[in-house]
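Quick one, probably user error.
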């Protein structure tokens, strides 16, 4: 940010003509202010609220020296060529204005988005003119120095320890890695590209190079996997034991509306914004906006609580480009977002515990495990609810890391658990989450009537039980590569069974068998390409096909299929009905979708 600061006898200005897409309402008439500091302000790319506050703090020092308490913030783009987007600039200027008023400075601001005619009379003393440059780095360094987090370890015995003093026990290696990264600031291992990326790309999961960085694309088979995970996330959300309402809507919300703006300001710096017809919109970063916008219009009684709202929400977060990682840290993500609305904090803690248990059930079903970071905005909440936290630790069966945010920071949640896996490279990676929200019901006007008919604001749980779809994929591939024979869960494999004829002579037989298998709700294909059988089997292995069935004269005569099982790499003789029954039992109650590609490999393009 660049500010040309002028100690002035007076300034007069008049809006003449609108310019640009982001324009505030203004009257075309002269305005005059006397005995003040005029701040010709240019907001640059990368500036944020911390820069705005730093600017006002420095202005306060100047006001004291000059013995004046009035400022005019005047948007002035001519001081830099590295300009912020108009919507960002207006947001930062408003933050300057609001903060200045909060600290008792008489504050005015000229309308944004106008060419203006002005006259200014500058006092003649040495301090009357000054150019100030404020960078985000300077502002953030000062903020971080004040706002320091505090960490403790809550052990299985219910006692707390400092991370420096805690003695890690046998079997706590994963937890040690989390503590070293989060609490002790130890650098992660790194440098090389993670192995899972190559395998994701093999399935058609990759970056979209014709978009902004951090946006993923999915080929036909990857799209099938994506849709199955989305189906499953809704199934998991509906299984927790309360009514769960599926909602849908838009992904753009108007920043001029106080609830949207306030929620965005609490979220922080990673906002995608779109400017349309002189209005600024934020691209949603979770399903909160749409769900809350709908539910605020409902007539809700205490009898209806608790209930859930669910959507797989396309969400947008402006992550740093250098930190992007395929399938893990992206700018466009898909959040299976479940919100649980509760009568009060006691009910919220009860359902929080159930969600916590469900999150662990889901990771263990994949053969993985979590270590947890508990973020809290209040030490008092922890001290007053120690039995609640001990219960959560008991369910985890391992110690947890507590992180206490500095007092005075206005978050909407009081507890936010991050569930981390330790990936194949030894790095903690956050996957699932659950939060207790005590602020957004009032912010968005969501109310319910209690037994006496009085209006109350519900407590809201935010949770992604399996994480984002992208991070669930990340988990699947990371866990697969820790197996002796890597594979996806059977219900997610694009091809569950591949039928391979030993020669051209048996192609029709292979197709007939594949048709019978398919009719039983199994994804199956036939490798009818002019390749050797050995090469076809090798390719099936590299594609992580769960079952490979070889068809020759022996199989036709006996009625038994030669089935190669990827889990063991052994070959079993099974009847078709036995193979289908085994697959259906393995899939249990998981969602199913039919194959999205031609059954014959010779009819497919090379993906």
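Nope, works fine. Designed sequence:
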């Amino acid at each position: 940010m660049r500010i040309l600061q002028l100690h002035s006898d007076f300034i007069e200005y008049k809006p003449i003509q609108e310019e640009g897409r982001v324009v505030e309402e203004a009257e075309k008439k002269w305005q005059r202010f006397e005995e003040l500091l005029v701040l010709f302000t240019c907001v640059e790319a990368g500036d944020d609220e911390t820069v705005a506050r730093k600017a006002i703090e420095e202005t306060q020092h100047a006001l004291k020296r000059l013995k004046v308490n009035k400022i005019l913030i005047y948007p002035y783009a001519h001081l830099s060529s590295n300009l912020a987007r108009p919507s960002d600039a207006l947001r930062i200027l408003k933050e300057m204005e609001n903060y200045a008023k909060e600290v008792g400075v008489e504050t005015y601001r000229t309308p944004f988005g106008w060419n203006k005619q002005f006259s200014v009379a500058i006092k003649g003393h040495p301090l009357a003119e000054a150019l100030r440059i404020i960078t985000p780095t300077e502002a953030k360094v000062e903020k971080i120095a004040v706002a320091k987090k505090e960490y403790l370890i809550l052990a299985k015995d219910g006692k707390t320890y400092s991370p420096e003093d805690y003695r890690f026990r046998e079997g706590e290696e994963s937890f040690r890695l989390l503590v070293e990264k989060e609490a002790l600031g130890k650098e992660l291992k790194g440098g090389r590209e993670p192995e899972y990326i190559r395998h994701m790309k093999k399935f058609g999961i990759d970056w979209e190079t014709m978009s902004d960085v951090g946006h993923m694309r999915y080929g036909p088979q990857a799209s099938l996997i994506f849709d199955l995970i989305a189906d499953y996330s809704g199934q998991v959300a509906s299984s927790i034991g309360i009514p769960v309402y599926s909602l849908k809507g838009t992904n753009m919300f108007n920043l001029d509306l106080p609830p949207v703006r306030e929620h965005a300001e609490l979220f922080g710096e990673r906002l995608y914004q779109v400017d349309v017809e002189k209005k600024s919109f934020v691209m949603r970063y979770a399903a909160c906006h749409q769900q809350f916008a709908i539910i605020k219009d409902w007539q809700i009684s205490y009898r209806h609580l608790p209930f859930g709202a669910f959507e797989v929400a396309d969400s947008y977060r402006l992550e740093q480009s250098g930190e992007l990682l395929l399938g893990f840290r992206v700018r466009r993500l898909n959040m299976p977002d479940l919100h649980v609305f509760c009568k009060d904090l006691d009910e919220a803690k009860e359902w929080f515990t159930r969600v916590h248990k469900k999150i662990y059930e889901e990771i263990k079903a994949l053969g993985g495990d979590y270590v947890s970071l508990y973020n809290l905005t209040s030490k008092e909440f922890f001290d007053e609810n120690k039995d609640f936290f001990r219960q959560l630790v008991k369910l985890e069966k391992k110690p947890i890391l507590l992180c206490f945010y500095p007092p005075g920071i206005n978050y909407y949640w009081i507890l936010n658990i991050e569930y981390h896996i330790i990936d194949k490279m030894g790095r903690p990676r956050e996957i699932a989450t659950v939060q207790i929200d005590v602020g957004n019901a009032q912010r968005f006007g969501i109310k319910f009537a209690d037994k006496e008919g009085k209006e109350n604001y519900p407590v809201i749980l935010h949770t992604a039980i399996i994480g984002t779809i992208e991070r669930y994929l990340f988990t699947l591939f990371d866990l697969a590569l820790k197996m002796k024979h890597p594979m996806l869960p059977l219900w997610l494999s694009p091809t569950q069974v591949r039928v391979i004829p030993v020669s051209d002579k048996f192609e029709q037989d292979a197709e007939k068998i594949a048709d019978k298998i398919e009719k039983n709700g199994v994804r199956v294909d036939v490798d009818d390409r002019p390749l050797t059988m050995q090469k076809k089997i090798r390719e099936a292995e590299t594609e992580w096909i769960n079952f490979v069935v070889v068809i020759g004269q022996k199989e036709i005569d006996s009625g038994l299929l030669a089935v190669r099982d990827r889990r063991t790499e052994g070959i079993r003789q099974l009847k078709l009905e036995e193979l289908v029954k085994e697959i259906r039992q393995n899939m249990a109650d998981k969602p199913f979708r039919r194959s999205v590609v031609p059954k014959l490999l010779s009819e497919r393009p090379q993906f």
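The chain has 17 helices and 28 strands.
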